[in-house]
């Protein structure tokens, strides 16, 4: 009986000691605790501009509140080209995604692999820095732009609309489509992008699949597809247009 009481008292004392220690830790002033540092994380895929003049990299980054950003920069390098660009990080204590276009300072970027390095330096009395570097897969960026007008043909049975597309050399154009809709009337047309880093404009005939087109307002939508490395990539544009005679 007495042994049981003694063990109970020992356990009670030990529990009280642990609670006391936790309470002491909880009472440490906030300024005396270690501050979380900056965070930066380079994402694994990047986009190559059609002319090879820049690579777009996505970066996750954060820094603790009330710190000042001294530097937030992304550098990209390939054997024949390199460059760097800053991004607008502010210290709000939460992770955000930044899309950073890094221009080449010499040479032209290519499809394939590149080394991307992101670094952040912050200050609040003392200075803290963090860096992340990895090999990224540089994929084609497809730029596509629909014209603002389309021309009636075949008594409204079709319209012709211009589509301007640019994609990097090394990618291959795939079957691409334009849709034009006007009320209950809709239709599709096809084109094939040419990938050489230059802009190319295609006059695409869109045949009405039901009804007839009329002069006036309409909606247009296009997806431009290209292939590279066994994968397909696309650019998209959607536009309010005017159908004219």
Uncertain runs are 1-34
Number of helices in the DSSP assignment: 1
CATH topology call of the largest domain: Immunoglobulin-like
Task: Give the H and E element order.
Answer: HEEEEEEEEEEEEEEE
Amino- and carboxy-terminal Cα gap: 105 Å
Named at the architecture level, the CATH assignment of the largest domain is Sandwich
How many beta-strand segments?
Answer: 15
Shape: elongated
The number of domains: 2
Largest sheet: 7 strands, mixed
Assign a percent range to the helix content. 10-25%
Overall structural class, as computed from helix and strand content, comes to mainly beta
Based on CA atoms alone, the radius of gyration comes out at 29 Å
Tell me the name of the CATH class of the largest domain: Mainly Beta
* Percentage of residues in DSSP E strands: over 45%
**Average of the residue pLDDT scores:** 89
Strand order of the largest sheet: 4-3-6-7-1-2-5
Description:
The chain is mainly beta. It contains one helix and 15 strands, in the order αβββββββββββββββ. The protein folds into two domains: 35-140, Immunoglobulin-like, CATH 2.60.40.650; 143-244, Immunoglobulins (Immunoglobulin-like, Sandwich), CATH 2.60.40. The longest helix has 25 residues, at 2-26. Mean pLDDT is 89; it is low at 1-34.
Task: Compile the SSE list and pairings.
Layout: H1 2-26, E1 39-48, E2 54-62, E3 68-78, E4 81-86, E5 96-103, E6 112-124, E7 126-140, E8 143-153, E9 158-166, E10 172-173, E11 176-182, E12 185-191, E13 200-210, E14 216-228, E15 231-244
Parallel strand pairs: 1-7, 8-15
Antiparallel strand pairs: 1-2, 2-5, 3-4, 3-6, 6-7, 8-9, 9-13, 10-14, 11-12, 11-14, 12-13, 14-15
């Amino acid at each position: 009986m007495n042994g049981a009481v003694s063990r109970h008292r020992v356990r009670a004392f030990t529990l009280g000691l642990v609670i006391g220690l936790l309470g002491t830790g909880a009472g440490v002033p906030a300024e005396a605790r270690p501050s979380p540092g900056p965070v930066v994380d380079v994402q694994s895929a990047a986009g190559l501009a059609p002319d090879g003049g820049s690579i777009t990299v996505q970066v996750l980054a954060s820094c603790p509140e009330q710190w000042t950003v001294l530097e937030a920069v992304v550098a990209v390098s390939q054997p024949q080209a390199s460059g760097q660009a800053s991004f607008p990080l502010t210290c709000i204590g939460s992770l955000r995604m930044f899309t950073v276009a890094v221009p080449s300072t010499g040479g032209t970027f290519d499809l394939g692999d590149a080394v991307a390095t992101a670094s952040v330096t912050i200050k609040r009395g003392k200075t803290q820095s963090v860096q992340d570097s990895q090999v990224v897969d540089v994929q084609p960026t497809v730029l596509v732009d629909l014209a603002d007008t389309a021309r009636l043909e075949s008594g409204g049975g079709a319209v012709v609309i211009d589509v301007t597309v640019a994609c990097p050399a090394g990618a291959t154009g795939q079957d691409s489509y334009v849709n034009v809709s006007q009320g209950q009337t809709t239709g599709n047309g096809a084109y094939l992008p040419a990938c050489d880093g230059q802009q190319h404009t295609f006059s695409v005939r869109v045949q009405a699949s039901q009804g007839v087109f009329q002069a006036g307002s309409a909606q247009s939508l296009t997806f431009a597809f290209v292939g590279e490395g066994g994968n397909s990539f696309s650019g998209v544009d959607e536009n309010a247009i005017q159908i004219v005679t």
